[in-house]
Amino acid sequence: MQLRHLNTFAAVADTLNFTRAAERVHLSQSSVTEQIQTLEADLGIRLFDRSRRRLSLTPAGQRLLGYATELLKLADEAHSAVAEASDTISGSLVIGGLETLCATRLPELIAEFHRRYSAVELTLKTADSGGLRSGIRSGDLDVGFFFGEAPAATDVQSVSVAEEQLLIILPPDHRLAGRKEVGPEDLADDAFLVTQPGCVYRKMFDEAFAGTPPERPKPVGEFASIGSIRGLVEAGLGCALVPRSALAVHPGHLVAIPWSGRSRTTPVTMMWRRRRVHAPAIAAFLATARECLGGQTRR
Q: Which parts of the chain are coiled coil (predicted)?
């Protein structure tokens, strides 16, 4: 068994799709198929059931997956331990973040990290909070940044590195435009623009109005991005609850008022995979992020 074959096997086992697995391991679909067939030939047993419409692991494949996961983890830790002996921190890192954070907080952090460790190749990707968590677990991302608390898990670690003030954004002619702050009771009868359930911004809204009746305030629609919500608020369609960074790039012609509800801020959380030994580049990035972002509250 070769580690590269086990890595490909783990990707197919996780996605149960040869096309998506090929994208994850950066190979053609034919190469993925060939590697799985080679691994099955080496072991003398089928690892996947291809007879049904949906690909599935055989009992042998399920048993191998546990060993493959441990072997790949050990290989990764061995590589990191050896790299620690080098005087130069190098390699590559893939950083992920919510689009709002990628446009506001992360550029300064990444620029500072590059000044300190120019031999490390950096990639920055945007994703929603669910995509960031799954990317960390699969190894597609090394570090991820999002708003809100991280769910408890044994395979990842997380820390709150900053706080973000929550704001209510209103159309310019809104009746509350002159207020210094607003709370749930002030907006119970207002129309609100929200993202889809499962999105971190929707969770902020649901938690902010958890003490009000289910029908108050009433969302008038679900929208795909904070950018579109910001534009619709500006056009007068309704109000929205957003972190301050959402207004940093294109503030627009709207009114932003601090939220006076029970939680006035939301944490900026950094997440990474749990390892016994971190690659030097990851360890350096985590330390730099804590230093550059640590304790910041944007108001």
A: none
Domain end, chosen from 32, 63, 83, is at 83
73 and 195 housed in the same domain = no
Digit-coded pLDDT (tens) for 101-153: 999 999 999 999 999 999 999 999 999 888 898 889 888 899 999 999 888 77
Strands (E), the chain: 48-49, 56-57, 91-97, 120-126, 143-147, 156-170, 191-194, 218-222, 240-243, 255-258, 265-273, 296-298
Is residue 243 within 8 A of residue 167, CB to CB? The reply is yes
Q: Are 269 and 145 in contact, with CB atoms under 8 Å apart?
A: yes
pTM for this entry: 0.75
Please classify residue 270 by burial: count the beta carbons closer than 10 Å to its beta carbon, then call 0-12 exposed, 13-18 middle and 19+ buried. Answer: buried
CA 180 to chain centre: 33
Rounded CA-CA distance 290/270 in Å is: 9
What is the tens place of the pLDDT at every residue in 193-238? 999 988 889 999 998 888 777 767 888 999 988 889 999 999 999 9
Torsion over CA of 197, 198, 200 and 202, rounded to 10 degrees?
10
